[in-house]
Amino acid sequence: MTLAGCAASSEQAPAPAPVVNTLWTGQTVAGDAPAAGSRFELMFGPDGRISGRSGCNSFGAGYALNGAALQVHPPIIGTRMACSEAVMAQEARFLAIIETATTASVGTDSMLTVTGPDGRAIRFAKADVPSNQSSSHANSAMPMPTPSHVVMRCGDEQLRVRIEGDTAEVVLDDGSEMVLPRLEGETGAAQTYTNGRMTLQRVTEPQHGFRFARGRMALMPCILAQN
Would you say which domain of life the source belongs to (predicted)? Predict the structure, then answer.
């Protein structure tokens, strides 16, 4: 009995997902479950930017994370779509907590908790992905486009993307194709392609990934999608 107990205790639980470069989905906002028709998502980018969905709209801002200590740099920029009264009220609470957040940490239950100075908190779970993609997404990595397109989901949109030279070819859900030229003079890990109406950003450090936005919307993280 003693030996069996020792063997069982030697098994280690899987390491929790890192706060940064993981897509998190909101489970509760100040103790309440998401309102019907809402969607809450959060991603801490390796470039010092957060982005996500605040219930009805998408948003983005700068941030600094030192251990569990979090500071979000105003202003928070987001879209201005209108949803139901319940969703908009919960969105206001969500953004108030995010804007004044003081801590962000992953607990032993693998849940991310973002807490404001008054103790109100938002609880997140790591986003689910299709089982045939779980291995690559677990590393927050995305293969880089080759001559064939890579299919990815960015927020509500599914895109087919191919990077070729200094342009990004983006095929939308309706089959239309956009060619986005790369911004000149960029240095560092991020490469941005835009035509002014839509923007695709490729990040190569610490791991490969993409973000996408239309117009002045905040850049949304992309994950691999099924063909």
Answer: Bacteria
Tell me: the pLDDT tens digits for 42-76? Answer: 989 888 888 888 998 888 888 999 999 999 998 88
CA separation for the pair 182, 166 (Å, rounded): 5
- Boundary of a domain, candidates 126, 142, 163: 126
Q: How many CB atoms lie within 10 A of CB 147?
A: 6
> Does 8 reside within a domain?
no
- Measure the CA–CA gap between 149 and 197, rounded to whole angstroms: 21
79 lies in the same domain as 120: yes
